[in-house]
């Protein structure tokens, strides 16, 4: 059976860029130590993801909606699919497979530019830095996102201990995101620590709706050597309603992606975790385990995904469906 799946281009693209260019997780487990590159890629990803989320819930989006746990396409589940796998499970996993594929490559699509704010710009004098992002829309054409901001270095410490350089840099960020007629306020911070060959990076960006400052989305990223994590927290009227955690790891040439969705607006038991691991023998095959997020030892089901013309899901009962 073949199901039509509307690919989430912008969210996958944005996450892929930060994964491929900033994390630099190679087969040897080496990391990129350029903190400025890491931060710029993360900012780009956060700008697109946040704005598309706000546009999606307001019905204003011209592009594709961002995929979160409660933003899935629904359709009648085929009778032959195991009862333990829901349509939301399928949509969530298919939406993130594009992100995972790009995490496994070394190619980076450059779709943003950085520079100073022009003197004839409306935000000149208020902010000194400008990030311009131009991304394609599914229906054709392009959409532009611009972040005006200033980033202040709040702390820098450097010392040498046992012939190893120890470096710590902390910054804060304030700015606005402009997308057509829509304007959003943004704040952030980042911490960079390096000791010898060990590097830790922590970056956070929060985007606020101007219609209601209590509606905001916080995106956090942490990187330590061969592991990286993202956390999306969505707030409505100041209350956390949805949280998505993404963890990517490259350990001994085995690349795995773990996704955990928590929807706080529904039953607390409605929590799920997906563990996706690339096959050691075929780079186009991925093994998936669906687990209860509140009970890590409880595995609901296991199945495989093969990259064909879309994603071919083969379940534990032998049933196969293709998501395009």
Which keywords apply here?
3 helices, alpha+beta, single chain, disordered N terminus, 324 residues
Distance between the termini: 11 Å
Query: What order do the SSEs take from the amino end to the carboxyl end, as H and E?
Result: EHHHEEEEEEEEEEEEEEE
Number of strands: 16
Largest sheet: 16 strands, mixed
- Mean pLDDT metric: 75
Instruction: Please report the number of helical segments.
Output: 3
Order of strands across the main sheet:
1-16-15-14-13-12-11-10-9-8-7-6-5-4-3-2
β-strand percent reads over 45%
Q: Compute the CA-based radius of gyration.
A: 20 Å
Shape, per Cα inertia axes: globular
User: How many independent structural domains?
Assistant: 1
Q: In short, what is this structure?
A:
The chain has 324 residues and is an alpha+beta fold.
Task: Give your account of this protein's structure.
This protein has one domain (2-323). 17% of the residues lie in helices and 49% in strands. It contains three helices and 16 strands. A 16-stranded mixed beta sheet has the order 1-16-15-14-13-12-11-10-9-8-7-6-5-4-3-2, covered by helices on one side. Helix 1 runs antiparallel to helix 2. The longest helix has 24 residues, at 35-58. The chain starts with a strand and ends with a strand.
């Amino acid at each position: 059976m073949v199901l039509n799946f509307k690919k989430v281009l912008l969210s996958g693209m944005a996450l892929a860029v930060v994964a491929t260019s900033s994390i630099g997780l190679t087969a040897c487990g080496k990391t990129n130590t350029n903190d400025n590159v890491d931060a710029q890629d993360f900012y780009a990803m956060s700008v697109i993801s946040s704005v598309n989320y706000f546009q999606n819930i307001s019905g204003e989006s011209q592009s594709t909606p961002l995929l979160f746990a409660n933003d899935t396409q629904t359709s009648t589940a085929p009778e032959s699919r195991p009862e333990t796998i829901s349509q939301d499970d399928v949509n969530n996993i298919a939406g993130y497979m594009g992100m995972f594929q790009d995490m496994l490559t070394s190619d980076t699509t450059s779709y943003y530019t950085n520079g100073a704010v022009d003197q004839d710009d409306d935000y000149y004098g208020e902010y000194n830095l400008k990030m311009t992002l131009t991304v394609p829309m599914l229906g054709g054409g392009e959409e532009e996102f611009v972040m005006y901001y200033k980033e202040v270095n709040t702390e820098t410490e450097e010392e040498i201990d046992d012939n190893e350089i120890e470096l710590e840099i902390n910054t804060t960020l304030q700015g606005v995101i402009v997308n057509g007629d829509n304007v959003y306020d943004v704040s952030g911070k980042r911490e960079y620590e390096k000791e010898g060959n060990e590097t830790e990076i922590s970056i956070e960006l929060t985007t606020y709706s101007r219609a209601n400052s209590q509606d905001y989305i916080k995106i956090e990223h942490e990187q330590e050597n061969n592991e990286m994590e993202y956390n999306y927290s969505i707030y409505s009227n100041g209350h956390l309603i949805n949280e998505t955690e993404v963890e990517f790891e490259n350990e001994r040439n085995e690349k795995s992606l773990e996704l955990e969705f928590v929807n706080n607006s529904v039953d607390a038991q409605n929590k799920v975790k997906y563990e996706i691991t690339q096959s050691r023998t075929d780079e186009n095959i991925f093994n998936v385990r669906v687990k209860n997020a509140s009970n890590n030892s409880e595995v609901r089901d296991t199945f495989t995904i093969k990259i064909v013309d879309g994603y071919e899901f083969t379940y534990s009962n032998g049933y196969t469906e293709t998501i395009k």
